[in-house]
Amino acid sequence: MRYYDDFAIALHWVLALVLVGCFCLGLYMSDLPMSPWRLRLFNWHKWVGITILSASFVRLLWRLTHRPPAEVGMPAWQRWMARSAHGLLYLLSLSIPIAGWAYSSAAGFPIVFFGVLALPDFVPVDKALAEAIKLWHRGLAWTMALLVLAHVAAALKHQFIDRDNLLSRMGFAPRPKE
After folding, report:
1. CATH code, 109
2. Distance CA 163, CA 178 (A)
3. What is the pTM of this model?
4. Residue 178 maps to a domain
5. Among 126, 125, 123, 100, CA closest to 113
6. Domain count of the chain?
7. What is the pLDDT of residues 6-45, one digit of tens each?
């Protein structure tokens, strides 16, 4: 069995943890009453989103320049499902932060990355547009959450039902000595 390289594994797990954290932060902060604490959380959410966007571009570039290990022993339909799910995860990890950035721009709240670097607004301030983009941002985030759950379920199925040691490809289970 071939394995992913250490850089790909590190990017996968760091992005997984940061994505879950950002999703949970988004859920928590969205229903809070207006306060300095809520505004601080919104800024943190934006900063994490821009970090996810940047790391996702790095991960995509790495993936395009480094072939993943072959899916050995999987039926064709499972290989197709895995590739489709991975493609959607890449697409969502880029589109959700971009939608969040657009929402912030349309709402008239610019992103100042870590309070230092002002990012340009790329949509005009428009309350109706902001509300529409907010729905897209939220819908895409929930879509990704469901897809991540399916991804985790598939990995666990491979590891514990199929017993094909799939998790070792991403560094979670010990790799056999070669």
Report:
1. 1.20.950.20
2. 19
3. 0.92
4. no
5. 100
6. 1
7. 899 999 999 999 999 999 999 999 999 999 999 999 999 9
